Amino acid sequence: MYGEKRYRSGQGLAVATLVLLASTCTNQLLAETLGQFVEPTNLMGMALIALTAILQFLTYIATVVLFLVWLNRAHHNMAVRGSGSLTMSPGMAVGGWFIPFYNLVHGYRSMLVLWTDTEPTELTDMRSAPTPMLGLWWAAYLLSGVSVTIVGFNNAGQAKDYGILSGIQTLLYLTSAVLFGMLIWRIQRRQAAQNGDLSQLGISGDQLAIPSLT
Fold first, then answer.
1. pTM of the model
2. Deepest in the core among 29, 35, 92, 153, taking most CB within 10 A?
């Protein structure tokens, strides 16, 4: 049902996703800085803004692709383990992101089940609410998407509040990206520890302190 029935480390995918995510943040900051200070009459500056936008688009697409591959891998590992937290197939974990309207909640759910499944055994009986980081990430992600649309209506830069709106959009994007990266890395570490894959994380069994992984 889930293809190869063995644990497959997502370490490399997680690291690559985080590197690209950091790159998108850098490009976003650069684009925001240029947009605030470069005049429309500055042809060289406008060309640099266009180049930055292209790089941002390419790195964003690459980040999305690698994240979805990692997400599929993480859900695959959960399915192979026969987890009681399993609520969707690895394929649906990825496909749900592309279903209109449903994807407004699916992204949160696809990460929530991974967080819940990788919760340390010692804390299993104390599960109550998910980490606030999940909710903050998803709220920032959705608001960032809304702000992109709002900024788009003012993309000519003629509105007096364009600079403020653009700055808010960048702040929301960076906030969601940082929280997203933290979630990916923590889930990866927890799942690796859960499957005895500590060697790939460069940590020993003595370092597997449950509080530091939650």
1. 0.82
2. 35
